[in-house]
Design brief:
50 residues, alpha+beta, two-stranded parallel sheet, 40% helix, 22% strand
């Protein structure tokens, strides 16, 4: 089993939880960086590309 398959299995069994702080559009990437730089985010910051 490869790494990606192992992670997918953990997610499917509820053994791994993805924590998302917020999602930003690509045009807001500077705002996303500011949030990350504060050191106060909980979870990941995702960038969407449309």
């Amino acid at each position: 089993m490869g790494n990606l398959e192992r992670v997918a299995d953990w997610l499917a069994r509820g053994e791994l939880e993805v924590v998302l702080h917020d999602t930003y559009e690509l045009a807001q990437i500077a705002d996303a960086h500011r949030v990350v730089d504060t050191g106060h985010k909980r979870g990941n910051v995702a960038i969407t590309i449309e």
